[in-house]
Amino acid sequence: MLTQTQLKAVFQKYDFSPLKRFGENYLIDGNVKDGIIAEASLAPGDTILEIGPGFGALTLDLAAGSAAVFGVEKDKKAFEILKDLVKDGLPNLKIFNEDILEYDISKIFTGKKIKVVGNLPYYITTPVIEYIIENRDIIDSALILMQREVADRLLAPEGSKDRGSISCFVQYYTKPEYLSTINRASFYPVPGVDSSLVRLKILDKPAHQVKDEAVFFKIVRGAFNQRRKSIINSLSREAVLNIPKAELMSILNKLKIDPTSRPEVLPLKSFADICNEVC
Q1: What is the pLDDT of residue 198?
Q2: Pick from 168, 202, 236: which residue ends a domain?
Q3: Number of domains in the chain
Q4: Residue 269 located in a structural domain
């Protein structure tokens, strides 16, 4: 891993300027790096997809063992620099200059589910989470560095002000686990906020069984899009369930759900129960 001094030297040598709009902040804290590698729990035969390897702060350690590591770097110049830094010293490491959201992960799947590792900038965190979940059939887990406020939303339990539709989406398909907070001074250039290290373990099956996932997520989004409204007011709208309030009141009472509840206080199971009752 490059130190801050070494990183500055690389910037100068290659005439490279980190792009703020891409959230290019590079890890420079060796203790943090060692902690992330330990949490990756690499085993022989593992396939690792690293999202945004940058200048290899994690990459070289990930590839130091027998795991097959595939790095996907969107920034063309950073990609060329990383290739030059790594050269051909690690035959189990392959780096691609691609947008991760367009990367076909199935081409690196060999039968054993893939582990994802990444340091994600704010602007792409939610799309990458969606990408991971869309490919959940071939992904085992994701170990992700993300802005602390985003992590708080993903992990938020019922009753939390941070809870939203993304919390429900993630908790429906994965078991999210907070691992540690990473101080902003561990990166260069220094970002404006701290980060959190989070593991998303893909569940073998969704957290709750629903009759229709499209309806389930329509209910969730409809509730949180009007989060200041009570459940009965938000869900009865034409754009959501389009059910008369009296009918919805009967359903909620049957499920022992307070019709005046705000969406953030409801457990995931309550949304699943509503879905199964109306489908």
Answers
A1: 98
A2: 202
A3: 2
A4: yes
Q: How high is the mean pLDDT of the chain?
A: 95
CA distance 100 to 107: 13
| pTM score | 0.94
What CATH number should be reported for the domain holding residue 162?
3.40.50.150
Encode 67-102: b = buried (16+ Cβ within 10 Å), e = exposed: bbbbbbbbbeebbebbeeebeeebeebebebeebee
Q: How many CB atoms neighbour CB 198 within 10 A?
A: 25
Query: Would you tell me how many other CB atoms lie within 10 Å of the CB of residue 252?
Result: 23
The whole domain housing 258 covers: 213-278
Question: Does 224 lie in the same domain as 154?
Answer: no
Q: Which whole number is the average pLDDT over 87-111?
A: 93
Residue 174 β-bridge partners:
202
Co-location of 221 and 190 in the same domain: no
Closest of 209, 147, 150, 142 to residue 176, by C-alpha: 142
Residue-wise pLDDT for 75-97, tens only, equals 999 999 999 999 877 899 999 99
Q: Please report the sign of the dihedral spanned by the C-alpha atoms of residue 107, residue 22, residue 155, residue 236.
A: negative
- pLDDT, position 87: 82
Is 186 found in the same domain as 236? no
Counts of helices then strands in the chain (DSSP H, E): 11, 9
Model confidence pLDDT, tens digit, residues 168-185? 999 999 999 999 999 999
Measured CA to CA, the distance from residue 260 to residue 147 in angstroms comes to 33
Cα dihedral sign for 154, 117, 121, 184? positive
CATH of the domain at 274: 1.10.8.100
Q: What is the pLDDT of residue 66?
A: 87
